[in-house]
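User: Let's play a game. I give you a shape written as tokens, and you guess the letters that built it. Ready? Here's round one.
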């Protein structure tokens, strides 16, 4: 939600690009710690109290953002929101996987719900932007989150895994390919988060129409909604490492495009390319990692991705005084490096011994 509201906060308060990077870093640091807690403290994520408590924290932190203009308080609130978001995401994903164990193709729509949320909140901010204030935008975000929380909190509890699955012998990790994947996913975290934080602000700057940035964010969400289902359907015919490399290349070009081309057309292409890949890359990476290593591999990959999210705003902070477009160019370069690191995985997929 911070991404589409940031331009309004810049125009209506004294928030600078550097302040925005600090707030974003706090949010992603919270997400990293929440993800680590979810991965390495299983009783925490299995507790029925965690989901409603985290949903309440998430709504409360959104509603508290417009009550202050103090940067340290914003940083603290976004840190708490990030930690709560990570635990909510992991908890709901586990519930969905348990409930859809016999219909795995539907799980892609659960991940796609992130895109639907982006589209709805982006549209709300777009409407508020015409005559409203940044405070109203945060309150609307809190109200939408509260309504959504009522449905999420009623999700069924996770069922126990089948006995055969619980007693399956551990796999021996493929250390070489897993290392390439870990580096690639870390770089994806860096590149993705820079675009997710500053894409709207970049498209809203330099005399562009006021609706362009937030409108593009709505397109990001609409493209993300079906993306996991479509990419996973392709994975039935095409090796996942190849799809992962292609998705990273598409994302790299989409993110870098606004740094060299302006206008509505470039913004739409960038939004579709970015939205159509970022959740799919997450799903493809985690599925590939599970096949290469052990269940704990998912937690390790998620931690690396979260670390990349923390590092991303810090990496581009020195160039933000020159505008947001240089940051998108750096992000595109990082995502290109992520694609190059994922490419060696294709050799393993092509090896008959690992087919």
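Assistant: Ready! My guess for every position:
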């Amino acid at each position: 939600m911070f991404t589409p509201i940031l331009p309004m906060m810049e125009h209506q308060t004294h928030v600078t690009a550097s302040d925005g990077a600090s707030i974003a870093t706090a949010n992603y640091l919270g997400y990293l710690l929440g993800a680590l807690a979810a991965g390495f403290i299983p009783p925490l994520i299995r507790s029925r109290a965690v989901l409603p408590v985290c949903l309440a924290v998430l709504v409360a932190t959104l509603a508290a953002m417009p009550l202050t203009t103090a940067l340290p308080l914003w940083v603290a609130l976004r840190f708490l929101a990030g930690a709560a978001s990570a635990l909510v995401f992991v908890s709901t994903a586990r519930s969905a996987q348990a409930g859809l164990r016999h219909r795995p193709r539907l799980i892609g729509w659960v991940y796609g719900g992130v895109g639907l949320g982006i589209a709805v909140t982006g549209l709300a901010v777009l409407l508020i932007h015409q005559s409203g204030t940044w405070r109203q935008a945060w309150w609307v975000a809190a109200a939408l989150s509260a309504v959504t929380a009522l449905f999420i909190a009623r999700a069924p509890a996770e069922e126990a895994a089948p006995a055969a699955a619980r007693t399956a012998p551990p796999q021996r990790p493929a250390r070489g390919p897993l290392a390439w994947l870990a580096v690639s996913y870390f770089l994806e975290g860096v590149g993705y988060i820079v675009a997710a934080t500053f894409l709207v602000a970049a498209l809203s700057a330099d005399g562009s129409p006021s609706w362009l940035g937030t409108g593009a964010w709505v397109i990001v969400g609409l493209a993300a909604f079906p993306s996991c289902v479509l990419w996973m359907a392709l994975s039935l015919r095409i090796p996942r490492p190849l799809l992962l490399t292609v998705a990273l290349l598409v994302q790299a070009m989409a993110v870098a495009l606004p740094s060299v081309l302006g206008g509505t057309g470039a913004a739409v292409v960038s939004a579709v390319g970015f939205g159509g890949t970022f959740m799919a890359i997450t799903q493809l990476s985690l599925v590939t990692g599970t096949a290469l290593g052990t269940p704990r591999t998912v937690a390790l990959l998620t931690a690396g991705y979260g670390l990349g999210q923390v590092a991303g705003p810090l990496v581009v902070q020195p160039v933000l005084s020159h505008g947001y477009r240089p940051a998108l160019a750096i992000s595109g370069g990082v995502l290109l490096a992520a694609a190059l690191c994922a490419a060696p995985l294709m050799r393993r997929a092509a090896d008959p011994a690992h087919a």
